[in-house]
Design brief:
It contains 16 helices and 16 strands. It has 504 residues and is an alpha+beta fold. The strands form four sheets. Strands 1, 2, 6, 7, 10, 11, 12, 13 and 14 form a nine-stranded mixed sheet that branches. Bound molecules: adenosine-5'-diphosphate (ADP) and magnesium ion.
């Protein structure tokens, strides 16, 4: 099946240093909060914004003797995500303890999957413009617990801890270092977010920290990356730095740009980049060191003794696969093919599943290109201006479809259709009834149009003389007639009658 339109890969971003050109190599570790009402190992609620420490089960608070119990729904969500990224699903996976001390981590360890993740290799096609896309390989997805939250800015002398987030299920989605520029990195996060939202496995609300990324950046000389791809040898690439916890597409781009230039300056100065974890400071527009590899924690990973290895059945995976929705790439390709629209328009219409569904409801049994035009330009244009989503649209798909039907039947002109849309937007109602009740029907009755043309010709003898010398001036009469009839006269009929009368 044609899943994505034919595409070419974009050129990598090249940054000119003082001495030579450099290319970027980027790999992302995205933490996506699993859309689930309950936590990964407890029945406590995951509701965002609840009163601090109100959604905490005994096991989340690490009370002695409490044991984790795996939430089957979270596992299904991870499998669903893997299938959506065309990834290998591992029927046997296992949980490990990642040990570290932090006040918002009462257990003293995070339960994660280091050695046997539930999802293996997959891919994301990152669109960079019509006909241009990058295939980014996914290395793995594993399930793990989120930590709680320390709050340092509520009191001058004390810190507080909120455990509501403790134990919420996260999927860590690890990409290969296949991303070649800041824009691509942002587009990758955007595409991943879009797919997760289509799948319903993560809300992707970046402001709430629902989706956040650790960004690994290195620089290399042109050609080195191709060698890495041909041989799989990581050592031909530069040393990477990891920028932690990014939750804004704009900051991801700025941080990469800054980090690449920082590394270039070091290397061109004869120095070496040290592998370390850095933080981006958006106020200063720079990254700064958080900890170096030497200071990195020794997590003393070991298999979690409280949880059995996770075995799932192929039949269960198959049932999840059978329930997957049509995903963005497939839907976009289908829109281009079935409705004859541009890849750009198809991209706009498929950005969110609910937008695509709205469009399809408008287009069903109608002219797809015209439907696309109206949905994108009139409806989305208006919604965007008012900061509304399709779900809050004052004009429903049925109402917009009604406008298109009236246009198709030549009952109203294009200009009147826009007026009608305005009425539907502000007052609501049934399009056909409004047109009937307010006398908005297009005048196709040639007798009425002829009368209007005669009137204008009679009132403007000088213009008639000029137009007879120069037929191009007939347009002025057409305009006058359309104006006189309040835009209701059928333009084709007016054109024809004006030409005939002036000619005669
Ligand atoms: P580790 O085993 O140290 O965690 P991984 O090989 O798993 O390292 O990589 C972690 C992340 O860093 C991945 O997203 C990967 O794509 C990325 N990465 C690895 N090497 C590089 C590099 N040279 N430049 C940029 N990113 C890299
Ligand atoms: Mg790793």
């Amino acid at each position: 099946m044609l899943d994505h339109l034919a595409y070419e890969e974009p050129a990598p971003k090249v940054i000119a240093g003082a001495k030579q050109d450099w290319e970027l190599v980027i790999g992302l570790e995205v933490h996506a909060q699993v859309a689930s009402k309950a936590k990964l190992f407890s029945g406590a609620s995951t509701e965002f914004g609840a009163e601090p420490n109100s959604n905490v089960a005994f096991v989340d608070a690490a009370m002695p003797g409490m044991l984790p119990v795996i939430n089957e729904y979270c596992v299904a969500q991870a499998v669903r995500t893997g299938l959506g990224l065309k990834a290998r699903i591992n029927l046997m996976s296992a949980f490990d303890r990642k040990n570290y001390f932090y006040p918002d981590l009462p257990q003293g360890y995070q339960i994660s999957q280091l050695y046997h993740p539930i999802v293996g290799e997959g891919e994301v096609i990152v669109d960079m413009g019509p006909g241009i896309a990058r295939r980014v390989r996914i290395e793995r997805i594993h399930l793990e617990q989120d930590a709680g939250k320390s709050i340092h800015d509520m009191d001058p002398t004390m810190s507080f801890v909120d455990l509501n987030r403790t134990g919420v299920a996260l999927m860590e989605i690890v990409s290969r270092p296949d991303i070649r520029g800041p824009e691509e990195a942002a587009a990758y996060v955007g595409k991943l977010r879009q797919i997760l939202r289509y799948l319903g496995t993560c809300d992707g609300n970046m402001q709430n920290g629902n989706l956040r990324a650790d960004v690994n950046v290195s620089i290399c000389t042109p050609g080195a990356y191709e060698e890495f791809r041909a041989t799989g040898d990581h050592s031909v690439l530069g040393t990477r730095c990891e920028i932690k916890n990014m939750n804004s597409m704009r900051f991801i781009q700025q941080a990469i740009e800054y980090e690449a230039r920082r590394q270039i300056a070091i290397v061109e100065d004869g120095g070496t980049v040290v592998q370390e974890t850095r933080l981006y400071d958006p106020d200063r527009g720079e990254t700064r060191s958080m900890r170096s590899k030497e200071e990195a924690h020794d997590y003393r990973y070991f298999p979690c003794p409280d949880l059995l290895p996770l075995e799932i059945e192929q039949a269960w995976v198959d049932a999840i696969a059978a329930s997957l929705p049509e995903l963005p790439d497939a839907r976009k390709a289908r829109f281009v093919k079935d409705f004859g629209m541009t890849e750009y328009d198809a991209g706009v219409l498929t950005a969110e599943a609910e937008n695509a569904a709205f469009f399809e409801a408008v287009a069903a049994g109608r002219d797809g290109k015209q439907a696309a035009n109206w949905v994108i330009n009139e409806l989305f244009g208006r919604l965007n201006k008012q900061g509304l989503g399709v779900a809050d649209s004052p004009v429903s798909a049925a109402q917009l479809g009604g406008v298109l039907d009236l246009l198709a039947a030549n009952t109203i002109s294009g200009k009147i259709a826009k007026d009608l849309f305005e009425i539907l937007w502000t007052e609501g109602g049934d399009p056909a009834e409004i047109v009937e009740a307010r006398g908005m029907k297009q005048v196709t009755d040639t007798g009425a149009i002829e009368a209007a043309v005669d009137e204008i010709i009679a009132a403007n003898p000088a213009q008639v003389e000029k137009a007879r010398q120069n037929p191009k001036l007939a347009g002025w009469f057409v305009g006058q007639v359309l104006k006189a009839t309040g835009g209701k006269a059928n333009p084709a009929a007016v054109n024809e009658i004006v030409a005939r009368k002036l000619g005669g």
